[in-house]
């Protein structure tokens, strides 16, 4: 249970850090900011007030937050310091929406703020560096975030020894160590934070959160008595403010305490209070964390059906399940719960989803060599398959040509006969039209059949290679890694044999790479969660620092045949690849919508465009394969391109195959 709590607490803890730390008595604070925006005539106080209001509302009301941010921008008036602060708060706005964008604006803010040698500038830089690490955490990992805090944020805050910022950073450092099971080290940093905050800021929100994090850490150490002391201190701070949005966090820590002390019945009303506050202030992720703890308690009380309903509700609501680690945990718990309820078949289904998701989590770092080997092998197999199909196509074309030759000979005879009888001439013309129509129908059917064979062959080959890599080579490499790990735990010392563990890490990265290759060949998210989720994952895969992709899905149904979903996925994949690789676009808009049996795809980019006759002069098979898939779905495609960018509109008929 301890391990499970630590896993799920990650998202609670980091939701704390992405928040603005504001006074516990929120309303006077907000009123004072609003008063500045309406009465103060100076640009700087007004800009600061609007920025702080934007930061406060960013997770409560995104539209209002954006409005306040842009209002603050109007008061910059060529002030470079305010311009840097605007970049910082814009990054704050994007932090929980688009981490890649947030990271870019944090970098701009740090660059601008570094030109000023003031306390406010240094502390803002410290906060920007820390938030930049949070934004990059999913991409770079926890060691990167830890390095940023220790080498960038804390040195800036330490210049002002007893600042709130330093106490806050010690608390967040403790949270990271706590999540990584370094509980004693986390306790030391919480103690450092308390030494600063209790003495200098005894009624601050920073102190309140430090008490809660300390209580959580003691809960994970199963030290309920010490946790209770911290909770009591936090309760004393928050009790005068029952309308504060941070009450939900207090009740979450109290829930952990009840679970630690095995007071399951007492925990349920605490959870309900926490859910009330979380929903009141739109803290959706935190609300789902409460529901997860509610499930755990109901399961312990053997109320299996209620527990199952709560867990399935978490999956449906999606806030918690969007993260793959959380979704994997939920699948595992549903498998265990189904087994306890005596439903072995359902337990197996959830276990299979858990196992599949475990593999898909290892898709972040791609190894170039394996990708090259796979691409070379896949290309050779594809060329062999295409050569076979082209030979079949030529044979069929010969047969059609023979039929055409026969018909032309017959036509010649009929033309001679028309010199004698006009009646026979009219009959001949009618027969000729009918024959040509039949030939066209035959050609069209044969071309569609050939296209289907090519596409089916490609997908079968992709699936076979993905299965061989995943089940064959992947299983062998995973077995080698497990054997090495088992042997090293009893024969090697982690500090003395660091080179061995570095090589073991490289082997682990190779296994992750191989699974990523297999996933690219056959998109697992499409098979498990449907077309919309697969397209969202595809867009997120391509997004990087210099590339923004805006994906919009409208009315996509989940019951489309898998073959149609797969063809649409390949069409979008080719369109995105063209925009990124050939057009060198930095901004892409992708819209996919469904209306009955019509499926529309629109993609716009700001790339360099291409010439109208590119499909005739280019040797690339990408555009040809794209047209084959569009024709296979009886669709039509329009392309508009110039030096300002390219727009592609595709309309597909998905009424069966």
Automatic annotation (TrEMBL):
SMART domains: HATPase_c
Keywords: ATP-binding, Coiled coil, Kinase, Membrane, Nucleotide-binding, Phosphoprotein, Signal, Transferase, Transmembrane, Transmembrane helix, Two-component regulatory system
Coiled coil regions, renumbered to chain: 363-399
EC numbers, comma separated: 2.7.13.3
Catalytic activity from the UniProt record: ATP + protein L-histidine = ADP + protein N-phospho-L-histidine
InterPro entries: HATPase_C_sf, HATPase_dom, His_kinase_dom, Sensor_HK_TwoCompSys, Sig_transdc_His_kin_sub3_dim/P, TPR-like_helical_dom_sf
Transmembrane segments: 406-428
PROSITE patterns reported for this sequence: HIS_KIN (PS50109)
Boundaries of every Histidine kinase domain copy: 464-656
Broad enzyme group: transferase
Protein name, per record: histidine kinase
The organism of origin for this protein: Chryseobacterium rhizosphaerae
